[in-house]
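This part of the workshop introduces the protein records we will be handling. The question running through the whole workshop is how a given chain folds. To make this concrete, we reproduce a full record directly below:
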Amino acid sequence: LDGTLSSTTIVPKGWEVASGIVGFYERSVRMPYAHACAWNQQNPDKFAALFPLCQEVSSLFSEHVPDRYKYQTDVVDKTPKDYIIPGTVFTTLTINKNFRTSCHRDAGDLPGGFSCMSVLREGKYLGGRLVFPNFRIAAHVDNGDLIMFDPHELHGNNQIVPVTPTYQRCSLVYYFREMLQHCLPPREELLRAKNRKTGDALYE
């Protein structure tokens, strides 16, 4: 996934920390139309290469959390297919590289839906566990693992402590952006944005 991340900062000892999104995003004040993320548009082949992984995650979601999957599927069926990662119930991935997230509740995710997370690891490090403080649970997610959880529960990950000189913890979070269900197909979105007047609401 080299090159997928944005908003990069450099921290002591040269460890690179980055976070970014791929997939699709809803209207915002800066971009008042639903759109594909810049990385998708710049790297269509690499984006397509992610589809089999996303599809496998979606299939496991269906198998292990069928009630939440059914709810999310019903919303997907009402959403323009242009914003759905093919063969999945996801619109978007957040990818974090060597990034310790503070405890938070996700914003923008589909209420009633679920998030899925996998981790790609290289080298050796300690920590980086996914922590749910209200439940006193800390999950170790290794290569090949998948964890599914309610993103509106308080969560974060603990400190990442490198053991080898080089290491990587790259987490991939698969989810559905709530407001995309209220958006129009891309051509209609652009026309709507073109005709939008100052002060018009983003959503009716």
Remarks:
- The two ends are 37 Å apart (CA to CA).
- Confidence is low (pLDDT under 50) at residues 1-15.
- The CA atoms of residues 116 and 197 lie 38 Å apart.
